[in-house]
Give the backbone structure.
Amino acid sequence: MALVRMSDLLRHAHRERYAVGAYDVVDTAFLEAVLDGAESCQAPVIVSLAESHFEHFDFESLMAAAVDAARRAKVPIAIHLDHGQSLATVERAIRLGCNSVMLDASLSSLEDNIKATREIVHLARSCGVAVEGELGYVPGVEGEAAEKHPGAMQLTSLEDAERYIAETEVDCLAISVGTVHGRLRGMPQLDFERLSAINKALHIPLVIHGGTGLNDAQYRALAANGVAKINYFTGLADAAARSILEEAEDNPSPTYTALVRGVRTAIRTEVNRTCRLFGAAGRAGAALAASRPWREVEHVVVYNLRDDGSGRSEDWAAFAAQGVAALGAIPGVRGVLAGRALQKDARYHHCWLIRFAAAEVLASYRDHPDHVRYADNMFRPAAPDRITIDFELIDVLREDKESKFTPPALTSLSAKT
Ligand code: 13P
C-alpha cells in the first residue's frame, strides 16, 4: 500500500461513517508505533507533525523518516501538517512531503481566518495538497496538563461554518463542539446537536481536535455524525510516559534503552485501541480502493549549453547553482538536482531532475514568476538544445493494482523549463 490523497481518504471515511485517526508523532519511535498500530488492525491512518511540537524534533529529518515509513507501510496513509502557524511553514511542509496541511487561524476573527485560509488553499491546491480549516476554538495544548489552556472554548457556529466553507473551499473542517487539547479536568460534554446540524448543512468531512479522553460512545457518535478525522496525541504521549515510569520503578539504575524499551508497544496498543473505537479498523483495503495514490512527478530536462565557451565546467556549475536557488524555492518543488553526463560523447551533457510534490505542480511551476524569469532570461537562451519530459513516479512494487483511479491526462500541463 502507499501514500494516498488525504481528501479521498477522508471522503471515504465520511461516506462510510468512520473516522481516521490522525496521530501526532514527535520522534521515530512514535512514527513506527503509529504505523505498526494501524497495520495491526488494518486501519487507514494519518501521520501528523504539529508545529507546536517543532521544539522536540528536527522537522526536516522527521519528515524524511515519515515519507519513507509511509511508503513502506501496509495500510493507506496521508502525512499532515498539524496546527501550522504561517504560510512559510505550510510551504515548507509541502516541500518536505506533507500531502495535507492545516493553518491554525482559529484564534483570529472570522474575516482574518477566512483570508489566511484562502491564501493557504490557493497555495496548497496548486500543489495538489489537501487543506484542513479550523473554525471555533479548541483550548489546551496537545500532550500538556489541563492547566495549560490559553483561552476559553468557542463552539463553532453553523452560520459561520457555512460562510467559511463557501469562501475558503477547504477539504475538511475542524470544529469545536466541546473537546479540549491535552489532559482533561473531567469528561467533556459534547454538543452533538450542533455537530449533527453542521454535518447536515456542510456535507464535508469534519475533524475533531483534542481526541484524547472521550468515552467509547462519544467516539462512535462523532463518527456517526460526520467526523472523518480524529486528532489524537495526549493518549499516546501518556501511554509512552507511563511505560517509562514503570520501567524506572522496577529498575533503580536504568539505562536509556531500558527506559524506552516499552514505549513502542504502549503507543501501538493505544493506536490499535483507538482505530477500533473510531471504526477505522479493517477499512484499509476499501479506503485504498477509494483513494488516488499520492504520486510525485520527476520533471526531467536534458540539455546542452550553447557552444560559446559557457560549456566549460566551472561556468556550468555557477549556471546550475543559480538554477537550483531560483527553482528550488518555488512552492511544490520537493528538490532540484543538477547533473553532468559521465560519458564525453553523450547526446546530452547536462540535466535537471526537479521533483514535484504532485502533478498539479506542473502548471503552477510553469507559470511561477521565478520559473518564468529563470527560464526566459537564463536557461532557454543558454540551452537551446534540450528535451523536457515529466514522469509520474509509480511505486510499482507497492501500489495496489486494484485502485479505481487512473491519473488525469497531463498533455496540456507540461511544465516546460
Ligand atoms: P489531544 O492531545 O488532546 O489528543 O489532541 C490532539 C490534537 O488535537 C492535535 O491536533
Notes: The mean pLDDT is 92. The longest strand covers residues 77-84. The two ends are 33 Å apart (CA to CA). The chain has 15 helices and twelve strands.
